[in-house]
């Protein structure tokens, strides 16, 4: 099986290099997007330090960069750039895994590949319809109003929504979920074809609020039952949120180790070695000591 890890990163170059080394396995390639606002040189240097015998240089690809600001379309564009680059450079990819540079695996690289092999047609993607109790005020404001990020923008968004509510183009129904997913090849092809055929849908989300948590769900969950039956509503990550109103998940540390390892997920997020540099070592120790998992996909 050929696996493409699509990595969005913006900080901690050494942490990114460690993530890549832990995920490396036969048939794996990496497509790395670094936020345009972050210096690229440090990331390039850290990945160059990985011996070519361990990870061939040809298996690491740098993706065209955009400013990937939280809550804005840049995060969607960065993901689309990763998909386009992976299709162009590595024919025959079976599995596309979108991860953050602050994710970390909770199983060995080969065990994770075996997980994908057991479900080659399945996409793992958190999803729910909007409105939802999981999000503050139901989440429909992310579609119906403009995603304005300047000071006081939230008040302007509210006033706009009173007088004018946007509607998704093409009669699409609103779905949302986590930004992070693992997509089968057929579903990735479906997404890219939809984007090519419907530029108006892409333009619509240039003005959505936090479009990275809706863009891909809306495409696939509106694609019919034959597509939907191969989507499992699980992003396969251990994540801790303070509340539905929190913009970012908790940074995990050594105090979270037992809960992390008991989660039985493939990944956890998010980690920040500038805040807690000790947590990744015991995770590696436990993963390396564990026997290969026989767990099947959910």
Report on this structure:
Strands 3-2-1-4-9-6-10 form a 7-stranded mixed β-sheet, sandwiched between helices. The chain has a 3-stranded mixed β-sheet with strand order 5-12-11. The protein is 36% helix and 14% strand. The chain has 298 residues and is of the alpha/beta class. The chain has 12 helices and 12 strands. It is globular and about 55 Å long. Helix 11 (257-262) links the parallel strand 11 and strand 12.
- Beta-strand residue fraction: 5-15%
Q: Strand sequence of the main sheet, in spatial order? A: 3-2-1-4-9-6-10
Sheet having the most strands: 7 strands, mixed
| Fraction of residues in helix | 25-40%
State the low-pLDDT regions, or none. 294-298
Task: Give a short summary of the structure.
The protein is α/β, with parallel strands linked by helices. The protein contains 12 helices and 12 strands.
What brief labels describe this structure?
alpha/beta, 298 residues, 12 helices, 12 strands, 14% strand, seven-stranded mixed β-sheet
